[in-house]
Amino acid sequence: MRIIFGIFFIFLSFLLFFLSEIIYPFTESINFDIFTNTQKIYYLRKEVKKYQKVIEEDNKFLKLKKEEFSLLKEGKKEEEEYYCVIDLFSQTLYLKKGERIVREFKISGGSGKSLISPWGRKWQFVTPKGVLKVLRKIKDPIWYKPDWAFIEEKKPIPPKNSPLRRVKGMLGDYALDLGAGIFLHGTPYEHLLGQPVTHGCIRLDKEGIKMLYDSLKLGAKVYIYGK
After folding, report:
1. Which pTM value belongs to this model?
2. Phi and psi (nearest 5°) for 37?
3. Total structural domains in the chain?
4. CA 40, CA 148: separation in Å to the nearest integer?
5. Contact between residue 126 and residue 172 where contact means Cβ atoms under 8 Å apart
6. pLDDT at 178
7. One domain for residues 112 and 129
8. What is the rounded distance in angstroms from the CA atom of residue 41 to the CA atom of residue 18?
9. What is the CATH number of the domain that holds 156?
10. pLDDT for 100-153, tens place per residue?
11. Rounded to 10 degrees, what is the CA torsion of 35, 36, 38, 43?
């Protein structure tokens, strides 16, 4: 039995030696330390994972910085643009650039009064609150006189295309269209500025409307609050 086991062991050793020479040269097999090299491979993989994590973190940081810079750029751009804030309580318009008040002007906003026509139509003369935008900028605007203006004057209402409806000079030198028939415009009645006397539009003096016309771009915001 021992002899058989000895022969088997010798045969197995020879087979392993033969296979190692085919798979891996004998001299290199002797020098190859499987434990040490396995450790090296393990630590190298750890280093690679560590650097991959560092690279991922750097990429995230760069992405955040890029987004932050983009937002800062947009915010700065918006901050540099002019806009208006209108306080109907004090009848004051503030021209602003960012958080800074550039100029303030006395205005006349809507009177809040009502008018009813002989046939029952009703008008409420109020300035709308909220956020409006400059839709058009008009030089030397012509006022198209609406029906209520003739009713107030107790005059007959002319046809829609009548030249009696076109009035020059009533809106001053400039007008900014805020939509829905509401305008920022000049006025020949500057002595009434500071009082709510209009039919919904916002009146300014000659200097004020010129400055708004020059400063506000199309799309500029106009914030209106108050009564």
Report:
1. 0.65
2. -70, -30
3. 2
4. 93
5. no
6. 98
7. yes
8. 27
9. 2.40.440.10
10. 999 999 999 999 999 999 999 999 999 999 999 999 999 999 999 999 999 999
11. 140
